Automatic annotation (TrEMBL):
InterPro entries with a match to the protein in the record: Class_I_gatase-like (IPR029062), DJ-1/PfpI (IPR002818), Homeodomain-like_sf (IPR009057), HTH_AraC (IPR018060), INH-QAR (IPR052158)
UniProt keyword annotation of Transcription present: yes
Organism: Siccibacter turicensis
Domain HTH araC/xylS-type: 218-305
Name used for this protein in its record: AraC family transcriptional regulator
């Protein structure tokens, strides 16, 4: 079943705060359905372009929904409008569903300010754009505001630093909901090889080393990320991507700054950690990830620490 993503459309919204996450989710159409809601049928963006066809704010959202609040270009004034006040009251009415876990809230940039005004940030760890941090602390004195963070999650409320970090957060949510492969495919389609993370380092090995354009390395990475648990030798991998083992070793060091062996170990470690989080035993997790024994997994974890 698809996840419904609802974008709250307000006058003055930062175009990239809305379109960045929207484009990211839209590149996984088998997983997400996008909806645009707001107090008025049209809303002008920060670029002067007007978005139309906006649906009214519904009384309630379907269970499992993601509700996205983009930031605005001037949060000092544009959250004091009648339209923003209507959304604030509507958000307050969604708080019971949020507390039950029936929906998740995603605040992009200064969108966290509107959520704070609706009373949703009390006691919640959160962040926002560095220029807005002080105002977020004032708007939600009981919130636990984190400085210098890309994104933060606490009890179903996600908040991000804004602009391109909305894309980072969207990729992270795709990973959380549908796995690293789905997130990787979207990131590759967007040519967003470098993946910044918030609190969760588990996604890093899948996307961290993708900020290059070398086709042979991408082919090798595709093979390794698809089945990191397989018994990959350097020669086998090099043959599959049609280069010599020596050349592939040189390419990884030159473009990624890491050896093929270490890259594969990071992938396997991420798989093992996911298995452990799912409740599997250490031996089962080690073998599922391609480690020969729990001891080998333990040594890999020590090297990564």
């Amino acid at each position: 079943m698809k996840t419904d993503v609802w974008f709250v459309m307000l006058p003055g919204m930062l175009a990239l705060d809305m379109t960045g996450p929207a484009e990211t989710f839209s590149l996984a159409p088998e997983h997400f359905s996008l909806h645009y809601i707001g107090p008025e049928r049209e809303a002008a963006t920060s670029l002067g372009l007007t978005m139309g066809g906006i649906a009214p704010l519904p009384d309630a959202l379907p269970p499992g929904s993601l509700l996205v609040i983009p930031g605005v270009s001037d949060s000092r004034d544009q959250f004091d409008t009648p339209q923003a006040e209507a959304v604030r009251r509507w958000l307050t009415r969604q708080q019971p569903a949020l507390q039950r876990g029936d929906m998740s809230l995603v605040c992009i940039c200064s969108g966290a300010l509107l959520a704070a005004r609706a009373g949703l940030m009390n006691g919640v760890q959160c962040t926002t754009h560095h220029d807005v941090i002080a105002r977020l602390k004032t708007a939600a004195p009981q919130a636990i505001v984190r400085d210098n963070r890309i994104f933060v999650e606490d009890r179903g409320i996600w908040s991000s630093a804004g602009i391109t970090s909305g894309i980072d957060l969207s990729l992270h949510l795709i990973h959380r909901l549908y796995g690293p492969r789905a997130a990787l495919e979207v990131a590759r389609e967007m040519v967003v090889w470098f993946r910044r993370s918030g609190d969760d380092p588990q996604l890093s090995p899948w996307l961290r080393y993708r900020n290059h354009m070398h086709p042979a390395i991408h082919r090798a990475q595709d093979l390794l990320t698809a089945t990191p648990q397989d018994d990959w030798s350097l020669t086998t991998l090099a043959d599959r991507v049609h280069v010599s083992a020596r050349h592939l070793t040189r390419l990884f060091q030159q473009h990624l700054g890491i050896s093929v062996r270490d890259y594969l170990e990071q992938l396997r470690l991420a798989v093992a950690e996911q298995c452990l989080l799912q409740g599997q035993g250490i031996e089962q997790a080690a073998r599922a990830a391609g480690f020969s024994s729990p001891r080998q997994l333990y040594r890999a974890r020590q090297r990564a620490s």
